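Narrative of activities, Objective 1.

The group set out to show that a structural description can be obtained from nothing but a protein's sequence at a throughput compatible with the screening campaign. Below is one input-output pair from the validation batch, recorded exactly as produced.
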Amino acid sequence: MAPDWLLHEGKPLATATVLSHPEQLDRLRLACPEAAKTAVLAGDPCFDRMLALRRRRPALRRALGAGDGRRLVVLNSTWGRASLFGSDAFPALLRELTETLPVDEYRLCAVLHPNIGYGHGPGQVRAWLRRAAASGLTLIDPLGPWRQTVAAADCVIGDHGSVTYYAAALGLPVLLGAFADRDLDPASPVAALGRAAPRLRPGIPLRTRLDAVIDGHVPGRYDGFAALASSDPGGSAGLLRSLFHSLLGTPEPARPAALPQLPVPGTIPGEAALGTPNLTVPLRVLTRVLAGGPPEVAVTRYADPSTEPAGPDAEDAEDAEGTEGAHTVVDEDTPDAGRLALADLVTDRGLTGAPPGPRAAELLATHPYAALAAVRTGPGRCLVRDRTGTLLDLTALPRQDGFPDPCDPFAYASAVLGWQATGRPLTALTEAGVLVVTTGRVCHRVAVRAVPA
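Output recorded for this entry:
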């Protein structure tokens, strides 16, 4: 029996039924032969615009705060009970994402189907994700740069929705957190993706699974899905324009048809920047002073983990001096104000415009158990003060490629505290003039300058 939403009194409702690929036409002929007579193959304009973004991937990653080698993980969900967002496993997945992945080594974004917001209300969705947002997760506006975010990803954790399929068709690693196998046509490309893509498995730590999927990804693995995404990759603009003008009975313009290029996030005046997430939950930080060369400290920061995080890998231990240190960082705007009394390092994001030197002194006076206070003074820059009144300006130096370092400057402050906690004097940092802060596989060079009190 033909679907009633395609026919009226046995006749097709549509003058033209636009399909993106011939395989859809084959399935339409089986489901509703009457509607198949109106089918027009016109590619996929959304996929074409995402294909065009591949050449801008470095700029996209910089705009999203992943231009320094950290891994951009995009959490994607369609809508409905069988979706990732609707699954019983979603809350635990969200906690594991934000608590077990070092914040300076992984950049987290979420792309959710707009029906989730329509169904629950955008305020409710933001409330559900508030803790994750304070831990570094950026919720991407479903009418905003979601295509740019997906195109820049190192991995998409998703479900049976079209966005996860687009990611695979772009050649990106995907990891399925949920999948509505029973609700899909087994012959559909999306169902085939569900059979081919790896899935989250209980008992396997998320970071282990995620890194294995990224590191083990073979280019070309999903070429078959790319071939099924569009009947004419890059050509949908021309096909659709020809169709529309033929339906209107008007001549086509002489100029070539083209889709508007998607902008790099943050380049539109008034558009909010996406590169620096607001980390306001308490952070547990592990530090290790490394041997050789200028002063160097390895820093690993975790967003409010429920258990004490493990130390650096054993393979890194041979490069270490002294013992591993650990401390707690709490921002003045934390949602957990009671934790401020436990802070070793208190931070201020510099949003009030208060002079940074006096503000750092005020923080130490307000929180007598903190050893250090840090106030952000600009992108990649902060001022730190210790209990002796020593003031240090920490400023990220440009990377070798000339671009600014996107690392959170409070990671540099944690490096200073880790250095000081081993009994080393802060004067050694000012004499060297440079502090190397290592986060995962990335080394950040930071200029250190003493500031008069």
